[in-house]
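Researcher: We're teaching a course module on how sequence relates to structure. For the next exercise, students receive a sequence and then see the predicted structure as C-alpha cells, so they can try to spot secondary structure elements on their own. Here is the exercise chain.
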Amino acid sequence: MKFSHSRIELYQRCRLAFDFKYNKGAELVEVYEATNPLVIGKSLHLGLETLDYHDYYKKHYPVLYDTHIEELIKLDIQISKTLELIDKKGIFEYHIDTDDFQGYVDYLVETEAGVELYDFKYSNNVEHYLKSKQLHLYKYYFEKTTGKKVNKLGYIFIPKIMIRKKMNESTFELRRRIVKTLKEPFIEYVEYDESKVEDFKNTINKIKNDKFNDYTCCDNKYCDYCKIVRNGENYMFKLPENKKRERKIDLRPDLWIYADSYVGKSTFVDQFDDLLFLNTDGNTDNTTSPVFRIKDEVSVEGRITTKVTAWEIFLQVIDYLEKNETTYKAVAIDLLEDLYEHCRTYILEKNKWEFEGDGSYGKGYALVKKEFYNAIKRFKNIGLQIIYISKEITRELSLNNGSKRTTFVPNFKENDANMLAGTVDLTVRAFVEPDGKRKLQLTKTNNTFGGGRFNFKKDVISLNIEEFRKALTDAQEGFVTKVEDTFKEIILEEETTEEIELPVVNPFKDEDEAKVEEEQPKRTRRIRKKEGDK
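Model: And here is the predicted structure for the students to work with:
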C-alpha cells in the first residue's frame, strides 16, 4: 500500500474508518448536495488551471437548482481573485510518487531562490491546516526525488461562505449579497518541521503492524463509519420494521378552521406556539405570531418593471421550508381561498387566458387544480403542523318536504372543499352565539361542513386553545394498540419534533486520490421526525 497524507490523517483520526475504507473497501453513499466538497474542490482546481470547470460541476447533478448556480457564482469570483493573487507561471497538480508515498502538490513555482510549494484550501479552518503535515511531507519527498531545494511552503486559502436565503429575499438580492460577502483569498506560509515527517513514518509502521481486530468507535459524532457501527444506521432505502406502533395523543393536528368575518378564527389559531402566518389579506392587527405576506411583489429598476406573483412567493416559501431548518412548528394559511385565487391568476397569466374555459376541453380548470394541489402536497410534506383558515359562506338547501335548511361551509366549491378536508386531520367551524359567546363546532352536523378522525365527546366548545386541547385529549383517551395479542394504552404526551441531520460531508475521502479520480457526489438526507408519526 502506498501512503498519502490523507490516509495517515484518517488513521490517526479513526482506525475503524481507515479499516473500513482501505482494508475492506467499504465506501459511503455519495450525495447530490450543491456544496459537496469533493466536487467543489475539483472544480476549483480545474478553474485555476483555466479548464472548463462549469461542465465538470454540472455533470455531477441530475437537476440544477438555485443553490448549484450560487456555488458556481462563488467559484467564478474566487477563482478569478485567486489567479490574481498567485500571478505566477507555475505547475498545477505536480505528482510526487515514491515506493511508499504519493501526493499531489496543488501549485509549484520554481524561482532563482528555490522551489515554492503551495496547496489550495477552500476553507475557513486556517488553524487546522497550519498544523497539518501535508506541506512538510511534500517538501521532504519532493527534495528526495528531485534533488531540488524547497525554500517556501504555503497554503492559499480561499474563504468559504455559507449564506441562506432570507424569507423575504429575492434570488437576485441573495446573489448580490453573496458577491458582497465574499472575502479575498490569502496566503499563509509555514516553516518546515522535520518532526512531522518522522511522525508520518512512525504512523506508517503502526498501520503495517495493526491487526485491526477491534472495533472501537472514535469520539467524532460526525464520523459516518462509526455511526454505522454504533447505531446500525443505513443511508439506503429500507422498509420500516414489522412492529406495531404506539398511538400517541396528538395535540397539534393539521387543521382547517372556517368562520364568518370577525368571529376570531385567526385569533384562535394565533394561540398555537411557534406559529407562522402566511397572510393574504393584510388583516393582522389582532394576532401576535410572525407574519409573512403572500402578495404580488413589483419592483422597478430604471425602465424595467419586474413582477413576482403571490403564487410564486408562496412556492418560494415552500422551497425555503423544505431546504432550511426552522424553529416554527406550525404554519397557517390565512386565507386559503385567497391562495387558490392567486394560483388561478398565475395559471391564467402564464397561459395568456382570461378564463379557465379559454383552455381547450377543460384544460384550464385542470391546470389550476393540478398546480394548486401539487403545492398543497409539498406544503403538507414539510412536516410542520399545517392550518388552513377560510371564511364561511351560507347556502340554502331545499328539502323534499318543501322546507329549507341553511348550511354553513368554507368558501370553496364542494368538490374542492372535500379534497382539502382530506389533507387535514380535522375541519371545524367557529361561530358567535346570540349572547355573544364565541364557540367552536368540533363535529359535523346536518347543516355544518366539518369532521375529522377524532371521536370528540363534546360537539361544541368555547373558542379557546386550552378547551380545544382538552377536547383533543378526551377524544383520544381509550385508544389502544394491539401488540402480540395484548393491548397497550397510549402515552399521553405533547408532540415533540426531533431534527436529525445526516452529515453532508464525508470527511474520510482521500484528498490526493480525489485529484486523479472523479468522485461522484454522495447523497445526503435531512429527516424531520415527529413522535407519534404515522
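Model: If you want an answer key for the exercise: The chain has a mean pLDDT of 83. The chain is about 35% helix and 20% strand.
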